[in-house]
Specification:
single chain, mainly beta, seven-stranded mixed beta sheet, 124 residues
């Protein structure tokens, strides 16, 4: 199993910044393939914000949603199984619940673990 603990989030004005952090733990952390952040706005589906590959030939590769490229930066602390999402120049459209995600191998399948979610609100 993999457990995720999130921190950060809050309420800000447009143009301001926030940082989200996530730490993974559990007996399957050494099978994690990727870690990252998703977000879910009211009435909408949960979508990928940014993720980093943590194993294999693409180790370190980072993917961003087009809406956040140039404003958000995902970084990884490999030794501590943690990721940080630095969010700059926040916009009202970034308002959502943000969830940390880890994809890990459990037996023959890839499984998802989710954090509890943290609210990010950018005032209009």
């Amino acid at each position: 199993q993999v457990q995720l603990v999130e921190s950060g989030g809050g309420l800000v004005w447009p143009g301001e910044s926030l940082t989200l952090s996530c730490v993974a733990s559990g007996r399957n952390i050494y099978t994690i393939n990727s870690m990252g952040w998703y977000r879910q706005a009211p009435g909408k589906e949960r979508v990928l914000v940014a993720s980093v590959t943590t194993r294999g030939t693409s180790d370190g590769a980072i993917e961003y949603d087009e809406d956040v490229k140039g404003r958000f930066t995902l970084s990884r602390d490999k030794a501590n199984n943690a990721v940080t999402l630095q969010m700059n120049d926040l916009k009202p459209g970034d308002t959502a619940v943000y969830y940390c995600n880890a994809k890990w191998r459990g037996g023959a399948s890839v499984r998802n673990s989710w954090g509890q979610g943290t609210q990010v609100t950018v005032l209009p």
